[in-house]
């Protein structure tokens, strides 16, 4: 006999799964959470290094948007297949998060270009900095004569069919011009993902925190005209972290008497007269009336004994350096620093203590770099020891101006993620959407969240909205009506 029989079973370790379970429990529903592997919260769970909890690099909360805001009652309208549709629900996410944590807005991120610091235009939309850049005149002269291709205009990036296949290099040059693209976009993307911009889909430019601006906006800024667009405001848990917030959500899940959790991969799923039968690798079978899946569509198809579309995934070789340093040895109290200059392998430094306004004497800092780019930058052909890598990274931090001394670093640890970042190219997108279409056609009664609901729909905001939407569906439309989630 099955070990568990629950009304609702949600398979995943993701934030969306935990939010859905908590919301269902609030309404009196019993829920079984099946964690197939990994920490609760996935990427947002962070990591403990040197006895301190760190976020995995730049992990902030973003609630500023130009989208008209929808309310909680409009959750059923959320469409994960429409890129950035979640922007309509930022107020809903903020309202859900606010009772759990105190929030603060971080100072404007900076970027290093030509050896100088500027307010960041890559992730933070600090347009005013464009006129200060060393190649501002070249951009201005070019944009005066620039004629954008109307079919490739950035206003169409979320919905136009051409953006289903358009590469980022073509879209960026068509909207930004050559100088902006080759001086800012191309070198930074190469540092982050180790690829040229034509190897990534334009629609997913924000995945590596890069922009796709309207050419009219750039023209106005470079001419000195007023642009009514403020820099993006990034929010962070005050005296805390996103990882700590995620742990708090996980603890609420554990404390709920209506939520049961099981740690086990799912090796099989079948539809039976009693409901969905889940075969678990490390536990007895489970039956449930309602099933939700927040893992990949390929993994769901395999569990259903279906064949997903095969694809060769390209992934970036990333690594993180976690540092603890006395605040007196930090040169600049910058929240986030994007390093565009190509002679450095480091592409981003996040001072999580500054972001959190912690005021701690020992600062927590995360340095991000691509190991392939690191090896090429330092002409390394053979494996290096961690001590040798530390020395090269520390020297970069001195030259960049982040640190003023290497003698007082309290703690340092490198964590490698050799296949940690999936590059959003056309082959991976087509395979994901093919698998989703099979699931929608053959298994419409299985609710899908995360990557199973849409390609790269995994942001913090998306996951909260997906969890809220799933719970809302259970009370508003009844059972077996899950296709609208995707």
What does this structure look like?
There is one protein chain. Strands 1, 2, 10, 11, 12, 13 and 19 form a 7-stranded mixed beta sheet that branches. Strands 8-7-15-16-17-14-18 form a 7-stranded mixed beta sheet. The protein has a 3-stranded antiparallel beta sheet with strand order 5-9-6, with no helix packed on it. Helix 1 crosses helix 7, helix 4 (168-176) packs antiparallel against helix 5 (178-193) and helix 8 packs across helix 12. The chain has helices at residues 15-26, 90-97, 136-145, 168-176, 178-193, 215-223, 242-255, 297-303, 352-356, 371-377, 386-400, 426-442, 460-476; strands spanning 4-11, 31-35, 47-49, 52-54, 61-62, 103-105, 110-113, 116-119, 234-237, 259-263, 266-272, 275-280, 286-293, 315-326, 336-339, 346-351, 362-370, 411-422, 446-448. With 486 residues, it is α/β, with parallel strands linked by helices. The protein is built from 13 helices and 19 strands. It has 3 domains: 4-50 and 60-101 and 240-311 and 425-485, FAD/NAD(P)-binding domain (3-Layer(bba) Sandwich), CATH 3.50.50; 127-223, no CATH class; 315-422, Polyamine Oxidase, Chain A, domain 2 (Alpha-Beta Complex), CATH 3.90.660.10. Helices cover 30% and strands 22% of the residues.
Instruction: Report the radius of gyration as a whole number of Å.
Output: 23 Å
> Can you give the helix content as a percent range?
25-40%
Give the CATH H-level superfamily of the largest domain: FAD/NAD(P)-binding domain
CATH topology of the largest domain: FAD/NAD(P)-binding domain
**Helix/sheet category:** alpha/beta
What characteristic shape results from the CA principal axes? globular
Strand content: 15-25%
How many strands, which pairing sense, and closed or not: the largest β-sheet?
7 strands, mixed
The count of helical stretches stands at 13
Q: Averaged pLDDT, please?
A: 92
Distance between the termini: 33 Å
Low-confidence stretches: 478-486
What is the count of structural domains? 3
User: CATH first level of the largest domain: which class?
Assistant: Alpha Beta
At CATH level 2, the architecture of the largest domain is 3-Layer(bba) Sandwich
Overall strand count: 19
């Amino acid at each position: 006999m099955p070990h568990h029989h629950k009304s609702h079973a949600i398979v995943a370790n993701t934030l969306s799964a935990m939010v859905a379970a908590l919301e269902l429990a609030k309404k009196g529903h019993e829920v079984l959470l099946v964690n197939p592997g990994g920490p609760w919260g996935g990427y947002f769970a962070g990591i403990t290094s040197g006895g301190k909890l760190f976020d995995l690099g730049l992990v902030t909360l973003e609630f500023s948007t130009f989208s008209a805001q929808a309310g909680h009652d409009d959750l059923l309208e959320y469409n994960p297949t429409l890129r950035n549709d979640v922007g309509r629900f930022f107020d809903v996410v903020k309202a859900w998060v606010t009772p759990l944590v105190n929030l603060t807005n971080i100072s404007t991120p900076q970027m290093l270009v030509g050896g100088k610091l500027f307010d960041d235009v890559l992730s933070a939309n600090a347009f005013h900095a464009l006129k200060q850049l060393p190649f501002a005149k070249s951009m201005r002269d070019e944009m005066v004569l620039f004629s954008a291709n109307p079919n490739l205009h950035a206003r169409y990036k979320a919905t136009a069919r051409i953006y289903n296949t358009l590469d980022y290099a073509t879209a960026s040059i068509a909207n930004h011009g050559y100088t902006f693209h080759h001086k800012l976009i191309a070198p930074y993307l190469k540092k982050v993902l180790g690829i040229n911009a034509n190897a990534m889909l334009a629609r997913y430019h924000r995945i590596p925190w890069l922009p796709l601006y309207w050419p009219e906006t750039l023209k106005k800024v470079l001419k000195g005209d007023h642009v009514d667009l403020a820099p993006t405001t990034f929010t962070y848990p005050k005296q805390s972290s996103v990882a700590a917030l995620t742990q708090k959500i996980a603890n609420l899940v554990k404390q709920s008497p209506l939520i049961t959790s099981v740690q086990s991969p799912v090796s099989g799923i079948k539809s039976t007269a009693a409901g969905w039968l889940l075969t678990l690798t490390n536990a007895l079978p489970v039956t449930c009336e309602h099933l939700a899946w927040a893992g990949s569509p390929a993994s769901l198809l395999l569990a259903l004994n279906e064949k997903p579309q095969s694809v060769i995934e390209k992934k970036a070789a990333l690594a993180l350096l976690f540092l603890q340093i006395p605040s007196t040895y930090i040169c600049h109290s910058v929240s986030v620093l994007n390093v565009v200059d190509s002679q450095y392998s480091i592409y981003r430094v996040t001072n999580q203590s500054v972001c959190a306004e912690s005021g701690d004497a020992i600062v927590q800092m995360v340095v991000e770099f691509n190991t392939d780019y690191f090896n090429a930058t330092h002409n390394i052909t053979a494996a290096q020891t961690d001590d040798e890598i530390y020395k090269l990274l520390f020297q970069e931090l001195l030259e960049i101006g982040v640190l003023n001394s290497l003698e007082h670093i309290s703690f340092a640890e490198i964590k490698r993620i050799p296949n940690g970042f999936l590059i959003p190219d056309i082959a991976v997108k087509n395979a994901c959407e093919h698998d989703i279409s099979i699931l929608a056609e053959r298994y419409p009664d299985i609710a899908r969240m995360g990557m199973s609901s849409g390609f790269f729909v995994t942001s913090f905001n998306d996951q909260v909205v997906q969890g809220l939407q799933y719970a809302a569906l259970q009370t508003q439309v009844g059972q077996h009506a899950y296709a609208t989630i995707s």
